[in-house]
Amino acid sequence: MAPWPELENAQPDPNKYMEGDTSQQSTTPGKGKDTSQNDSGTPVTKIELLPSYSTVALIEEPTAVEDPWDLPELRDTGIKWSERDTKGKILCVFQGIGKFILLLAFLYFFVCSLDVLSSAFQLVGGKVAGQFFSNNSIMSNPVAGLVIGVLVTVLVQSSSTSSSIIVSMVASSLLTVRAAIPIIMGANIGTSVTNTIVALMQAGDRSEFRRAFAGATVHDFFNWLSVLVLLPLEAATHYLEILTNLVVETFNFKNGEDAPALLKVITDPFTKLIIQLDKKVINQIAMNDEAAKNKSLIKIWCETFTNVTQMNVTVPSPENCTSPSLCWSDGSYTWTIKNVTYKENIAKCQHIFVNSSLPDVAVGIILLLASLLVLCGCLIMIVKLLGSVLRGQVAVVIKKTLNTDFPFPFAWLTGYLAILVGAGMTFIVQSSSVFTSAMTPLIGIGVITIERAYPLTLGSNIGTTTTAILAALASPGNTLRSSLQIALCHFFFNISGILLWYPIPFTRLPIRLAKGLGNISAKYRWFAIFYLIFFFFLTPLAVFGLSLAGWPVLVGVGAPIILVILLVVVLRFLQSRYPRILPRKLQSWDFLPLWMHSLKPWDELIFLLTGCCQTRCCFCCRVCCRACCLLCGCPACCRCSGCCRILEEEQDTPIKAPKAFDNMAMSTEAQDGAPRSQVDGPDTEVTSSSTAL
């Protein structure tokens, strides 16, 4: 029997603790009674007293609140290796090999779906992205350049594509290096949207979603905070332009080989069977080429032959001849010899849409839906396989390897080693989006902590810039200097951000901000979608629209908004740290309407707006009703939901408490669903809906 909860100054009647009373002595002995006979043969009932409990032992310490950011224990619920026979061990080995092969296969299709997703975004918004760059009138505005970099990179889902466009524009003198630096900063922000989309796929489980979304958005916060500090600094001092120009002039760089495409060698054979794009069209649109606006991004001819021949052509006058010796007149015509380039198409590409007559937008939408479906399915299977593989001792070893610091004197070196590992892995896969997106499910299931994922993400930022530097070194001579300077600007921008937000633990604000956003998104999961749309689409579009209206309009609208945001941040800091210096009314946000300082009214509004989508009634027989509810998730309003409830009332042993403990407040649970008291004994089964506490 469970021990009774104690109250101070309580003196229960000890007779109440006796099992068996005088009214039951004449019946068959029950539990807790032994019947024996004395010398005269008279049956005597022995009454067993319950053990006494000290009031000191029942004064429990307050239970520690569970930290939602603690890594879950990946327990091994299967049969232990020592308990298996030979056949079971062989089967277990083959199962492990099969799971590993499946994991690699799903990871391969996951990376391929990211590549196809980038192509789909380019088909849908590539020409629009090129038109953003073609508007050179607002490029001198650093804020407008920043949001253009964000929008273009989000639309094409590739920072390397947007960087190559910037390099082409700088090499063609359509854009200066000074105007290109804010666009590079925006591209650095836009490339982090991919792993944020991947984190949305884990929204089914709140704990996993909290960790995964925080692990994805720590990259966002690092980029936004770095831009918030370094963009005004660059606009005032131009330190990135001066530093990169000094590096380019000091070192005599020569053309080298292109960066090794290690991952592309594996994924290109599959992705090229789905779609191939002619990315030169986006560059031509950015260069204000009118003919390119009517071209399709879908690549048709993969093998062409270009021949240069000399032909006799007519020119308006002798001044247009190539040279005086190659110029002659024939009546009213003036002839000369010119080199004419003739391009001959030899072989078509072998992808699905090579003979399709669909427009680029339609093909892009089809690929977008298909790639998101494959991405979601592969991510779910990767999480399931990792959850089944990372159990027991394997999980302990991996978690210790990834999350343990070096011994005491060198503990500070662990994070910097993680930065190098992240840079090396990103250099191998040649994409920071692929590396961070592959790391997101590991954060969600609890293999990697947020604190360890943060330096790995910073390293991926460095790794993607080293790839760009190698690609710049492989560029032609006329674009070598400009492309190298742009790549170095990207590199030193990330180095400056790391120096700002990593070396001192107090300055690691992205971790705290990402955890706060993770807590909010775990409670209100719709907020994650709002965050994605607001910060990566609506805000850049609004700033871009105001930039088109002119610099005075942008300052007039943006300055009051920035001042209000700064005021809220300062007031929130004072409320949490020094509330006594504030007036009583400003010590909390209660003086504002509820919808201005709480997401609960918005959550109720969204629930009402989406309630019609959740109200689904199924018309099925009573026999299949429960299976139907399990499949379609019928709400409470459905006629089938009533028969899905399990109405099993188990009769538990009635516990008679002493009168001293007869307190209604202690015999029922709290209204808000508080957990049951843990004072029950180890052998006690509690099946009632209320407890003693």
**Average pLDDT level:** 74
Structural class, from helix and strand content?
A: mainly alpha
Structural domain count: 4
Q: Which shape, going by the Cα principal axes?
A: globular
Radius of gyration: 35 Å
Largest sheet: 3 strands, antiparallel
Q: What percent strand?
A: 5-15%
Helical amount: 55-70%
**Element-by-element helix/strand order:** EEHHHHHHHHHEEEHHHHHHHHHHHHHH
Distance between the termini: 15 Å
- With strands numbered from the N-terminus, the spatial order across the biggest sheet is 3-5-4
Weakly predicted, low-confidence segments: 1-12, 14-36, 54-60, 615-623, 626-693
Specify the number of helices. 23
User: How many strand elements?
Assistant: 5
Structure description:
The structure is a single chain. By secondary structure, this protein is mainly alpha-helical. It folds into four domains: 89-269 and 358-549, no CATH class; 301-348, no CATH class; 551-589; 592-628, no CATH class. The protein is built from 23 helices and five strands. Helix 2 crosses helix 4 (177-190) and helix 13 packs antiparallel against helix 14. The protein is globular, with a radius of gyration of 35 Å. Residues 1-12, 14-36, 54-60, 615-623 and 626-693 have low confidence and may be disordered. Involved in actively transporting phosphate into cells via Na(+) cotransport. InterPro entries: Na/Pi_transpt.
